[in-house]
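STRUCTURE:
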């Protein structure tokens, strides 16, 4: 059990996130193929490979907010498309949200990060919860994080990851009104959103790392 994570743990955690998303490329592509154009896994893989490289350029003692920020920036500039903006923003939100605590990643930092990320993604993408997008995992996860700021980071992440997974599952039953599947309407029912799948993997990886 970890009360909080230090800088080198955060770096290792982000590298694990990248490894798990890269490994999940086929299932993420398949999830997008059912509802969209099938490029989500490839885009995420490309972004994560660039993010790993960006982390490698940072000094050993890089602050936590810079680790998240550089990771997100690299995704944004290499992935292209809506997913690049959206998932780059998720990590890049850490630049500001985590600057008060540059040496450790705490449950409060997690809540600040996810809250800022959800707000930015809603503003940039124009979607809201219920539209069958990654927000259906991210928004409930951010709300859960705000409720568990007194818990150790390991416990907070476990609860947040479980909430994100529920959100991913709930997106299956939604009718897409925004994002990859909006032209399918009711035919989008029965499959989760690929972006929500990515959010769930990212947060579950963080939870497993901190456990
Ligand atoms: Mg796509």
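SEQUENCE:
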């Amino acid at each position: 059990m970890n009360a909080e994570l230090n800088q080198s743990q955060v770096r290792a955690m982000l590298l694990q996130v990248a490894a798990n998303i890269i490994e999940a490329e086929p299932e993420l592509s398949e999830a997008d193929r059912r509802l969209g154009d099938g490029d989500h896994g490839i885009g995420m893989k490309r972004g994560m490979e660039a993010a790993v490289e960006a982390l490698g350029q940072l000094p050993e003692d890089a602050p936590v907010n810079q680790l998240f920020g550089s990771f997100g920036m690299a995704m944004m500039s290499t992935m292209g498309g809506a997913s690049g903006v959206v998932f780059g923003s998720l990590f890049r939100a850490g630049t500001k949200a985590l600057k008060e605590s540059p040496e450790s990643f705490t449950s409060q930092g997690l809540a600040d990060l996810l809250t800022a990320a959800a707000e930015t993604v809603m503003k940039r993408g124009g979607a809201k919860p219920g539209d069958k997008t990654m927000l259906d995992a991210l928004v409930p996860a951010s709300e859960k994080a705000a409720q568990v700021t007194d818990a150790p980071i390991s416990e907070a992440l476990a609860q947040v990851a479980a909430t994100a997974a529920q959100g991913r599952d709930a997106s299956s039953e939604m009718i897409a009104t925004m994002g990859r599947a909006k032209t399918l309407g009711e035919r989008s029912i029965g499959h989760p959103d690929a972006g929500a799948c990515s959010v769930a993997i990212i947060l579950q990886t963080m939870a497993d790392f901190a456990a």
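REMARK: DSSP finds ten helices and two strands in the chain.
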